[in-house]
Amino acid sequence: MTESIYDALRESHVRQRSLCRKLLLSKAHTEQRTELFTELRIELAAHAAAEERFLYVPILLDDMGLSSSRHALHEHHQIDELIEDMQVLDHSGRSWMASAKKLSEKVHHHLREEEKKFFQVSGKILNDAQKQRAAKQYRKDYLRMVKMLGEK
Predict the structure, then answer these.
(1) What pLDDT, on a 0 to 100 scale, did the predictor assign at position 1?
(2) What does the pLDDT look like over 15-32, one tens digit per residue?
(3) What residue ranges define each of the domains in the chain, with the CATH number in brackets?
(4) Residue that wins the pLDDT comparison between 38 and 152
(5) Which residues, at least 6 apart from 37, have a Cβ–Cβ distance to it below 8 Å?
(6) What separation in angstroms does the CA of 68 have from each of 32, 34, 116?
(7) pTM for the whole thing?
(8) CB-count exposure of residue 40 (10 Å: 0-12, 13-18, 19+)
(9) CA gap 132, 30 in Å, rounded
(10) Which of 27, 47, 123, 145 is the most exposed place for a label (fewest CB within 10 A)?
């Protein structure tokens, strides 16, 4: 069977959960913490951009998906703001780790909600061909964003 957008998104969700766990276990004053944070920041940003373009927008255009897509966009914005705040904090400080825990909780909450609610709503709106096309578009844009963000 051909891949759907949900298969592609779940793959990224697994990476996000793993990176959050590793980040929370990382030791202060280590290069590993900085590398994990950078990897997570890039993963979240690339995923959100491609997901918003190729899943949220079509769902936002349907009355049945308006509320859930707006809520998901709002959560992406909250995650972006947490990451921005963390970038200027000392990565070895307590406030940074408190923010990392808050970020991990927000990411896990968002992924759970997306997989349990948003996927079901959007699955009723999109047909199989649209889900397959969205997967291809998402993957292509996700890889482009990872490359672009990694070069910054």
Answers:
(1) 64
(2) 999 999 999 999 988 899
(3) 5-151 (1.20.120.520)
(4) 38
(5) 23, 86, 91, 100
(6) 36, 33, 12
(7) 0.95
(8) buried
(9) 41
(10) 27
Q: What is the largest CA-CA distance in the chain?
A: 49
3-class secondary structure, 3: coil
DSSP 56-115: IHHHHTSGGGHHHHHHHHHHHHHHHHHHHHHHHS-TTSHHHHHHHHHHHHHHHHHHHHII
Burial of 127 (0-12, 13-18, 19+ CB in 10 A): exposed
Distance separating alpha carbons of residues 138 and 118, to the nearest angstrom = 16
Pair of tokens at residue 9: 């998104």
- What is the distance between the alpha carbons of residues 91 and 94, in angstroms, rounded to a whole number? 8
